[in-house]
Amino acid sequence: MSVLELFISPGKYISGYDNISKLGIEINKLGNKPMLLIDKNIEKIIEKGIKSIKSFGEVEITYFNGECTFDETNRITKLMIEKGCDVIVGFGGGKTMDTAKASGYDAKVKIATVPTIAATCAAWASHSAMYTPEGIAHSYYSIYKNADLVYKDKKITSEAPVRYIISGMVDTLAKWIETKAFTGPIKDKNVELEIAILLAQKCYREILEFGEKAINDVKNGIYSKEVDMMLEHNILTAGLIGGIGGEACRAVAAHAFSNGLTALPEIYNRNLHGEVVGFGNLIQLILDGDIEEARKIAKFYKAIGAPATLEDLGFVGLDEEKLEKIINKAMYKGDTMWNLPYEFNFDLIKKVIVEANSLLRGE
């Protein structure tokens, strides 16, 4: 019998409403001298959390440079070692979370993530998506553990621009779309994989059923059970699926195509990660032969205000040279396109991109 090694969950997951002022209590349990990695754009939003941490003693602060690169993680790792920090606390979005995790792992200190948006499951995941300084997808860096603490204030995440929650919902839909593609041919599924599949199906079903109401409630300043559901699915459920299911429940063609679009970083970086993965979802479904489900998802995107075409994402008038760059990047041997359980080639991917881009034509 093979050895099963999974990175299922953070050491502790705390999710509350308007609880940021109590963050210091939990950070103090992890270490005596924290390094705070802060996205400058949200410093005002988290000031109560920073004050709470500072009330327990000495604190070091550094600001995220905006891109999760090995140069940035190395800078922060060295800084923590020089300052004698024993815990890193990352505040912000997915790239800040990934940078905090990779830096903390390399420095061998405790890791805490404090997501201020619910746009990805990065706060939970046991890997970091690494990019070049220009924003081109580089690799996935496994930290071989989850964060020691994920601390979420749902007041902050629900009051962030609605675009972030929409992006997170679309990204979370990929958990089932890609899991189904990867695990479909597996005949003898173990218990862990079956549980992950059930969770992926649950969040997929509930996002499609309750997502539009949740978005309307957020726009109207209403914190409803549907809003709460989306916030938890985008971080907790999405992270748990990858934790329990392992590689079989993570990235396939949808994320590979998202990485492919980073070949044009000047356009890609105007978008959120989940928005681009959303178009990848359509490609994944069409590759799987499920055109009607792809059309259904595209209509859902339109209903909640998510991008449904390349033009919506800003990729207008792609010539052959640019399209070739995108496809070659998506098909790079080290990327997740190769998790597909069937054969594919450049021409097929190109054909599917065109088809995915025209699903809502005439509607």
Task: Order the strands across the largest sheet as they lie in space.
Answer: 1-8-5-4-2-3
**Multimeric organization:** single chain
Helix and strand run: EHEHEHEHEEEEHHHHHHHHHH
Our count of helices gives: 14
Chain-averaged pLDDT: 95
Largest sheet: 6 strands, parallel
C-alpha termini separation: 53 Å
Low-pLDDT sequence parts: none
Rg over CA atoms:
20 Å
Structural class: alpha/beta
Overall 3D shape? globular
Beta-strand portion reads 5-15%
Which percent bin holds the helix content?
40-55%
The total strand number stands at 8
Write a structural description.
The chain has 363 residues and is α/β, with parallel strands linked by helices. Helices cover 52% and strands 11% of the residues. The protein is built from 14 helices and 8 strands. A hairpin with a 5-residue loop joins β6 (127-131) and β7 (137-142). The model has no long low-confidence stretch (mean pLDDT 95).
